[in-house]
Design brief:
203 residues; alpha+beta; 5-stranded mixed sheet; 6 helices; 9 strands; globular
Length: 203
């Protein structure tokens, strides 16, 4: 059945459990991140939506129906009727930043934040750092790599640390690693003949 069509009607038993009327129509749904495509208004071939949370799921609308190496899902009508929906993924985004603040940020940084959300505080400081200024380079494979290498045994890394490295510099490097991971996903599509148009980030 097509996305949004009626799968059937609520039975009396479930209507009572849910506090709804018997016979209430039940619609066909889809995976949470794929519904983000509709929520972002991404309806044209080439529109891409990156739903960013603990991980990042990157959905692409396309007329292209052939399998794409490194992309683990492609199905017709998954988000937009008449189009194929492809999904790439970065396994570790919010999880990686959460790991960092929970395990690597020193107590003095929390004191300097003066009760503010530590992520907001580090982001504000990281925004003042110019690209390449800290000399740090990170690889975001903290849960392996799903797209395009499909190898969950791979590990992340952080290079360029010195005794002067500050928490906000590492935080920025991890965010940059996420951005470069998305770039690799985009380039993988383009290398296999699938054009990318607009990109919408949501969370």
């Amino acid at each position: 059945l097509r996305l949004g069509s009626c799968a059937g009607y609520l039975t009396e038993q479930w209507a009572e459990k849910l506090g709804l009327a018997p016979g209430t129509p039940v619609g066909i749904g889809t995976v949470d991140s794929h519904i983000g495509v509709i929520g972002c208004g991404a309806s044209r071939p080439g529109d891409m939506v990156a739903v960013i949370g603990t991980s990042a799921c990157t959905m692409l609308n396309a007329q292209h129906e052939d399998a794409i190496p490194g992309i683990y899902l492609g199905a017709q009508d998954v988000s937009i009727p008449g189009q194929y929906g492809f999904q790439g993924s970065q396994n570790c985004v919010g999880d990686m930043l959460g790991w960092f603040v929970e395990n690597c940020v020193p107590h003095k940084t929390y004191i300097q934040a003066e009760g503010r959300n530590i992520h907001s505080y580090l982001m504000e400081k990281a925004e003042r750092i110019q690209p390449g200024q800290s000399g740090l380079v990170a690889l975001d494979w903290f849960h392996g790599n799903r797209t395009p290498l499909m190898d969950l045994s791979l590990t992340g890394s952080l290079m360029g640390l010195t005794i002067q490295t500050q928490p906000e510099e590492i935080y920025r490097a991890l965010i940059e690693a996420t951005a470069f991971g998305l770039r690799v996903i985009v380039e993988n599509y383009e290398q296999h003949g699938v054009a990318i148009g607009d990109i919408c980030a949501a969370g």
